[in-house]
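Sorry to interrupt, but I need a hand with the structure work. Could you write out one complete protein record for me, on any chain you like? Could you add the entry underneath, on a fresh line?
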Amino acid sequence: MPSTSTASTVAEHARRADADRALATVVVAELTSAGLARHFVPRRWGGAEGEFTGLLDEVAALAEACTSAAWVGMLWAAHGRFAALLPEEGQREIWGASPDVRISAALMPPAGRAEPVGGGRRVTGTWGCVSGIGSAQWLLVAAPETQGVRVFAVPAEEVEVLDTWDATGLRGTGSHTASVRDAFVPHHRSFPLAELMRGGDAPGLARCHSVPAQLAGGLMFCAPALGAARHALALWSGWAAAKAPGSGRPPHHDSAAVRETLAVASAHIDAAGLLLQRAAGRADTGPVGAALVAANQRDAAVAAGLLADAVDRLFRTGGAHLRAGGGDLNRLWRDVHTVASHGVLRLEPVAAAYASATLAADAPARTSAASRSR
């Protein structure tokens, strides 16, 4: 969990992050010191080789202070997990001096081109929506080549950042466009994207490095929305418990609509937290297979929908001053909806994958049972 000092600093700069479309330097320093970037880094480089459950709890707690800061910190952790699939020499180049290295990434969809040259490849391309790119020290990009798609690690000094991020929510993530022009990437700083998608299979890999990317991707993306929704509920509850200033009227919670909103929104937020906790536990210890991946994707997408519904209810019921354009509830509402709209958390493709994994697996058993009953 983040320290009180870290949470306080992050919260203090949340409004500024939203206005500036970037995290303050002091917030970047606090998140780095808190160990987000080293969470999945191999122990031999001084990292924690941590679990998904611990990251879920930490990111959700940070998001109660600032959703954008939690989003960027979550991605630093996730990208450290990805970079652990680089060859040993590539890992040493990134983490040889410290495990607290901030890594941004742009992997989906692959873009640009990678041309083979002696000792490696020349990488050129433009990748959009690269969260935290302004404070990153390395960038992972995915580019197609003749034998598939590879992931390439490029140092920040070889990346041009184009100021393009002006979204409705998660504004402080600074998810601008990254441009790379003719950067030489040696063999030891790349690996096949397919290895990330299926999970690493080298001997001795930690659990966090060997599971498929999609097993934990959704729950990590949803974690900032969980913390943001909890903060929104706390703000709204303060409003609901109070009387309108100078009105002499009873507290807002004397309204049946307010009481119903509290009951439903709080239950949805609790349910989302339980779904994500279960998904994180399965990612840490469950038997890996298509059904488990599909179940985790389902739980994360459904949790995102519950959280968006919860903040909608809070936003609609709260008073005009609580919904003010520059207020915290407005920002949290925008942030949660932006998280929930991420492609990884879209319900339609997730539902299709879940149906395919579960109904197709059950079909032989159902057919056999029907045959025996005749």
